[in-house]
Amino acid sequence: MLITLLVFGPMACAFGACSLGRNNEKARDAFAAAVGVAALVLALMIAGARPSLDIGGILAGGLHFTTDGFRAAYAVVTALMWAGTGLFSLEYFAHERENLNRYWFFVLVTLGATEGVMLSADLMTAFVFFEILSFTSFTWVIHEETQEAVSAGYTYLFIAVIGGLVLFMGLLMMRYAVGTLTFSEMAEAVAASDPPGLVFAAGLCILLGFGAKAGMFPVHVWLPKAHPVAPSPASALLSGILTKVGVYGILMTSLEAFFGSTAYGLVVLVLGVITMVLGALLALFSVNLKRTLACSSMSQIGFILTGTGMSVLLLAAGSEEGAMTALSGTMLHMVNHSLIKLTLFMAAGVVVMNLHALELNEIKGWGRSKKPLAVAFALGALGISGVPLFNGYISKTLLHEGIVEGVHEIASLALLLRAVEWIFLFSGGCTFAYMLKLFICLFVEKNADAKKQAEFDASPKCMNGLSTLTIVGSSLLMVVLGQPAVMKRLAAVMTGSDAIAHFSAFSWESLKGGLISLLIGALLYVFFVRRVLMRRGTRYVDRWPAGLDLEERVYRPLLTKILPGALGAVAAVFGENKVLAPLCRRILYGAEVAARALADGTDALVALLRHTAVREMPVRGGEVKAGWLRRAAGETREAVRPLTDSFTFAMMMTCVGIVLVLGVLVWISIL
């Protein structure tokens, strides 16, 4: 009953919130925030009772939920994130009334779907709720309905669509190869499976599918674009929880199905390391507050994936103690990152709420007189930077210990893992450098415009009492979870083992790695941020090369130029064949007509709805009255111009994914 209420209750409440919103917007907002608090109470009850739930008659095998230590802990973290952002949203949205019925509806549906993933007992249950939240959270990204928001939203959408299709492909192959998708049964089934190559291919598909949501390289392109344009409470959820949904799938699959696979562990490790260092560099170069925090999330996901890869490698090498060290660091860093980003994105929301700006040069010096906000931001920054006595230090130290264990235990990979260790320390240094950059910019430096700085200093109050309590209260968790006794107990609950009971957090060996990272970060800030990323030491400049955009430089050309060219080449090959040539031409012509009809027809439908039925989605920049069909028809192309390219691209990605799935089905039928 408790699981039913936690998973399906918020979804049902979403309809109640919409109904309230039609007559009383304040009552709706309060109701939605109360649902988040109620979910937290339910999650705490579930953590104590540890129930399970099986629902038959759905998808043949049914839906299955369980609550071991890790799942129960993350159900609580998920509910805490929703409760915190819900309370903060009461002030954040106080002066914005557009599209809030839609926003709250999908926030509550996503809450239930996220809890469904976190409590899932098998991959198919996780997949069902994973797909639900992929589409419901899309509305958060486009909430502002600016051209930038819509473009980012559809980038998020097509990555989610392709990720879901590839994940489904992996599930089909895994079910065919081992006969089960239940986590508790997969280890034994995989060990007895034949051929192992099919299981490995399924694992790669599952990795990429979940990795798309996690923000893992190379399917990370949505993350730096989506977080800055979403409302700050939604950004906190996107960064702190929805990325963990992907990590959850990767972690559970890796540990349950591939615990003995060195090759799989290496794949996860390499992708994790690339994600970790690339996200850190993107954050270091960024001159936008929320974009920096978004890229930071990508980097921290890389830390978590690195720990996951090390856990698999150490298990494959027979080092159970080393694997538990890496696994403890992985799970603890998941929790730490969620709570840290709750604090930091809410703090960024206070900036947006007051200044409606995010560019560092515009907000520079704004927080000099805002002491409570400065304290909360500082605690979050210290936590994510891995400073001793704060939560991120212990989880990062355990991750580092796991890498060091790998250097000693896996001789064949010692050189590679030594390189991974230094990349890990460098990425940690980048974290400290960009958090120093943000804190000093907001709370220490003065704005270049003296008049603007005087206005900033004249108004020390920047949020109401409830928001202050929520943000400062969440930041205190950085200190509470920074205590070794608390973290050891939490690790024992989540892993089901007290293997790190002997871990000495403040021994020289443990401190050394953290101090090296902090020293690297300090040097990066002094010699790189201040001298290279700033003009004359006063203005922040974006020096990231524009040509390094994967979406614009690789993915779009691949699908809009290379793929059509390849199809044309195929037609040319059969051009001399009297039977196949006409058939190829008809297929290509039919595909072209269908693609144009699908793209233009969908765009036209979207525009028509925006002008008529969906009155809650007005076109920015002008008021459009319902029923003006003639005007809507004339303005269709112009009204949806921001959508056309991205939506068409999303549909193309969907078609490519469907072709891939059909190919796998044919392959399985032949085997």
What does this structure look like?
The chain is mostly helical and 671 residues long. It has 27 helices and 4 strands. The strands form 2 sheets. A two-stranded antiparallel ribbon has the order 1-2. Helix 16 (371-385) packs antiparallel against helix 18 (414-443), helix 17 (391-409) packs across helix 23 and helix 25 packs across helix 27. The longest helix is centred in the middle third of the chain and has 36 residues, at 320-355. Residues 608-654 and 664-671 have low confidence and may be disordered.
Number-wise, the strands total 4
Rg, please?
A: 25 Å
Structural class: mainly alpha
Estimate the global geometry from the Cα principal axes: globular
List the SSEs and their pairings.
Blueprint: H1 2-21, H2 25-49, E1 53-55, E2 63-65, H3 69-92, H4 100-118, H5 123-136, H6 138-141, H7 147-178, H8 183-191, H9 196-214, H10 223-229, H11 232-257, H12 262-285, H13 289-316, H14 320-355, H15 360-363, H16 371-385, H17 391-409, H18 414-443, H19 450-458, H20 465-475, H21 477-480, H22 484-495, H23 508-529, E3 534-535, E4 539-540, H24 550-573, H25 580-611, H26 629-639, H27 641-670
Antiparallel strand pairs: 1-2, 3-4
